[in-house]
Amino acid sequence: MDGDLGDFLRSRRARIQPEEVGLPSHGRRRVPGLRREEVAQLAGVSVDYYIRLEQGRGPSVSDAVLDAVGRVLRLDDTEHAYLHAVARPRKPAVRPAAPRVRAGVRLLLDSMERTPAFVLDQRMDVLAWNTLADAVFGYSRTGPEGRSIPRHVFLDPASHDFYPEWSAVAVQCVAHLRMLAGHHQDDRRLTALVGELSLKSDDFRRLWADHPVRECAYGVKRIQHPVAGLLTFPYETLAVSADPDQSLLVYTPQAGSETEERLRLLGSWRATPVQT
Hints:
By secondary structure, the chain is of the alpha+beta class.
């Protein structure tokens, strides 16, 4: 994804006013935030070196320089890791054409009888799921396109009703996808996904241009299910250590909550054989 490093640094420079870092503003500015010369000064590098870094044409940059720039731009931990990833892309990884979820992980999914859980890959495609996840999201009733979380959020009009807080979900989705793209710059299918969404969704294109970077490792997700009604899930994302491109997402309702009861009824309804 050419230009990611420069675009990211420029977006982060624009967030910081000179006064915030002890510099005079010198009146009206042509661009918002810090100038490149000011970032270079505060990071302790030459202006030419920083300009070449931002243009993506500099030599291999050291950890010390990246750390200094990150401090000046006030990057959080996730943004800091993203900066290192896009500044020094790793060698292309050899990946199987069709990612496989190990039998042990599938067994773990099936053992979670009271919580929806599913496995994601580095493109936010759902690779495997358990019975309750299917009851909530309907993965078995859709094709591969419908099991792509970014495509569902931005290309399926029904997602606006499915997620009552759609705007927040959209920002989280883009921020997490941006983080993944930074760490998997060699993934052509991921690059193609970003291109497809940029062409087909004005919302995605606008959010992507803002360069949000966030690892959505945990939080709370609200879902308006067409049968069960409103479901509120605290969720956690767990790494699949033997398969670094995969993660396990677990949606766990609060004990004694309406969501827990509605989920139990939804699971029972899905398990009831259809009478013919």
